[in-house]
Amino acid sequence: MSTTASARSQHKAAEERARAAARDGAARPAGAPDFDALLRQDPEIAGVLLGESARQADGLQLIAAENFTSPAVLAVLGSPLGNKYAEGYPGARHHGGCEIVDLAERIAVERATALFGAEHANVQPHSGSSAVLAAYAALLRPGDTVLAMSLPHGGHLTHGSPANFSGRWFDFVGYGVDEETGRLDYDAILALARTHRPRAIVCGSISYPRHIDYAAFREIADEVGAYVIADVAHPMGLIAGGAAPSPVPYAHVVCGTTHKVLRGPRGGMVLCGAELAERIDRAVFPFTQGGAQMNAVAAKAVAFAEAAAPAFGAYAHQVVANARRLARALAEQGLTVSTGGTDTHLITADTTPLAVDARTARGRLAAAGIVLDTCALPCAAVPDTRTALRNGLRLGTAAVTTQGMGEPEMHRIAELIAAALREDGTARAETRALVHRFPPYPDRG
Ligand SMILES: Cc1ncc(COP(=O)(O)O)c(C=O)c1O
């Protein structure tokens, strides 16, 4: 039998197994998640689960990196797939008994390449940071120069923080955003690239709210002979849903996360062309990781199928529409929104025009049940202090959009944020009243 014919028959056998189990009323595998067992055995941790589940449903979850993954993804994560050791890749494992989980990884890779239009996908990285580490391991040598967004302007820890392997092992040069507009200045990045001749240029950010011009990065990189590494941990789900441009045609390597807007399990992935496939695979395993977590790999497959469905495209576009509405409404409430708005799920805003610093703001919002982050703001709202970097709020609309909230609710959220910042005593009850209309898991009570 040819490889394709054998793969097809394995897919069919797996589907038939599931249908037969459903017919026999035995659709739950032995070892499927059993909360009652946890409750009996370990009430302390059962209580943690109950508490966290209630907390997530009882407030506004505006952390830009978070989302509510589906019950199907959660079912795979908590399954006996997590028991399986599977070092290596499908068909070439260091452990026996991998024939079933091999199928899960093959399906995940097929779905990922189809979803993102990439020639190759590695779905094993345990996290976004692991994906970036693998990209560096594949393309760089210790001591190489790398150009990336500086951390105070929105770079991630893996983009050269001295507290991270990246800053320790490579020579990072930071680029920033234009102080007037808050936007990337591609001429300035080109000038830096010409001066420093980096081996790689990283594009991607934890807080930049605008689309990135990947073609411009590729042009700059080609001029100086550098690789482009696109770290799209944040917009990966928007890219999957067609609501943000794709770096795949331009970047040599694309790193991402499968949680955040993509709404899958916590984890990472790497995309690249066929010519770098082997280097990337070797950089993930055995260079930077051991055995793949097969429950997470299979859960990624489920998330990729969800993201390929038309409903996910609608979701991704609604995430952006909601973020734009929320950014506008926050500005109407007196906050200064960086770059004047957003193209993505993510907003950063300065609270100082309301005479509240970011840390105090986050505390007041938390007290009202509104959960979000602070982040460095490269452009301050008050021009005189522009050169003094300060913190602002960072928030996103991925989770509230999954809950079914739309633009009217974004307007309401901005009102609630303003009320909480004023320490209006009604903000907690009003937040609760809003979120209880949109339970994250409506069928689960
Ligand atoms: C741009 C960027 N890269 C990498 C990461 C790391 O992802 P993880 O927390 O899964 O390691 C993040 C996480 O927020 C990110 O925003």
TrEMBL record:
Its EC number is 2.1.2.1. It catalyses: (6R)-5,10-methylene-5,6,7,8-tetrahydrofolate + glycine + H2O = (6S)-5,6,7,8-tetrahydrofolate + L-serine. GO terms for molecular function: glycine hydroxymethyltransferase activity; methyltransferase activity; protein homodimerization activity; pyridoxal phosphate binding. The modification N6-(pyridoxal phosphate)lysine is found at residue 260. The keyword Methyltransferase applies. Its main location: cytoplasm. Pfam families: SHMT. Residues 40-417 form the Serine hydroxymethyltransferase-like domain. One of its GO terms (biological process) is methylation. Its cofactor is pyridoxal 5'-phosphate. The record marks 259 as: Plays an important role in substrate specificity. Residues 12-26 have a biased composition (Basic and acidic residues). Keywords: Amino-acid biosynthesis, Cytoplasm, Methyltransferase, One-carbon metabolism, Pyridoxal phosphate, Transferase. It is found in: Cytoplasm. It is an enzyme of class 2 (transferase). (6S)-5,6,7,8-tetrahydrofolate binds at residues 151, 155-157, 275. Gene3D superfamilies: Aspartate Aminotransferase, domain 1, Type I PLP-dependent aspartate aminotransferase-like (Major domain). One of its GO terms (cellular component) is cytosol. It comes from the Bacteria. Homodimer. Belongs to the SHMT family. This is Serine hydroxymethyltransferase. It comes from Streptomyces chattanoogensis. The gene is glyA.
